[in-house]
Amino acid sequence: MHEELNQGLIEFLKASPTPFHATANLVRLLHAANFKRLDERDTWNIDAGGRYYITRNDSSIIAIQVGTQPITERGMRLVGAHTDSPCLRVKPQPELQNQGFWQLGVEVYGGALLAPWFDRDLSIAGRVTFSRDSRIESQLIDFHHPIATIPNLAIHLNREANKGWAINAQNELPPILAQVPNQDGLDFRALLADQLGREHGLIADVVLDYELSLYDTQPAALIGLNQDFIAGARLDNLLSCYAGLQALLRTSPLETCLLVCHDHEEIGSTSACGADGPFLRQTLQRLFPKEDSLLRAISRSLFISADNAHALHPNYPDKHDANHGPKLNAGPVIKVNANQRYATNSETAGFFRHLCLAEEIPVQCFTTRSDMGCGSTIGPITAGQLGIRTLDIGLPTFAMHSIRELAGSHDLTHLVKVLTAFYATPELP
């Protein structure tokens, strides 16, 4: 199971350079497990024991296993994660011609660590909207091979580089695509139209718009002398999406279980498909249309927000509270914050500790230093939206929000095992 899960995660990360591709790959795996697609524009016919999924914006997805037990008595078991990661997004009119080079204007999406984006072999992927035969269509594209790079300035020309410098996102991040003799013929939309033809055999009349991201083409890998680590892009938070899916696929049909993977977490979650939008609430209302029954079910339910936790870095131990430094390969982390940046309380944390103890899974705890700020997750947002009991957890990670992050190669198995047990537990706190 350990090797199979790690290899599956590596393949999932490689095939999911954007939230759109991540959602498409989750759909593919759900289809293979006989989950049925529900269209938000149609009337839904839901059966006890049925397995379904819904997507919104092609970048968020909710997968549901409707239990055979009544939800008003047993509640629901929900696991939440997010499909987006900090990155560089291509601007609407990106063509730049500087000193004989074709470059692209980009903007920073989310709280990205910018320095690691330099000197990487970059490609471009995302969603393209175009007209064809008088119809407007959208399609995912992925150039796959390296087509861009952001070269560093040589140390000889920036003697202060190793002392740290503020990166100007407007001036220093435009990637280089090619050398060009003049500005004539710089047409990014024409490049996208050509890619639609090569990748999908589609002839677009006009490329109307797009949502495209740059990504590192170096694939994820098991690394370290004893392969103790997984290194790769977008571990935050596709690792949790993948773990939640694997747990859902392993559970029995008795209980009602959901996997909720939202887009836009890295930029605040306020959107039609984000956690601070109506997607989950509207889905639950349609699945269980009797309001009184749904509210009763929510009061018996539990939501686990799974998002990566900051592991104790050996070079920076003073960045952690001395008693709350999670270690790689030492199990999932319960995340606690007195100011509700995480939604964990003593009951939900106690339940999770009990579950880990029963499954013989190591468990850790994280709270930030009292003199440092704390990030947040979809946990408090979902708790506020639904009034549902919530727990924040995550796997310990180094270099969060870098172009390449690092996690423990044994922790994925721990997380899948405990989430599988959560989905199957007959009694919630």
From TrEMBL:
The keyword Zinc applies. It comes from the Bacteria. InterPro entries: M18_aminopeptidase_2, Peptidase_M18, Peptidase_M18_dom2. Pfam families: Peptidase_M18 (PF02127). Its EC number is 3.4.11.-. Zn(2+) binds at residues 82, 156, 401. This is Probable M18 family aminopeptidase 2. Its cofactor is Zn(2+). Keywords: Aminopeptidase, Hydrolase, Metal-binding, Metalloprotease, Protease, Zinc. HAMAP family: Aminopeptidase_M18_2 (MF_00467). It comes from Azomonas agilis. GO terms for molecular function: aminopeptidase activity; metallopeptidase activity; zinc ion binding. GO terms for biological process: proteolysis. CDD domains: M18_DAP. GO terms for cellular component: cytoplasm. Gene3D superfamilies: Aminopeptidase i, Domain 2, Zn peptidases. Belongs to the peptidase M18 family.
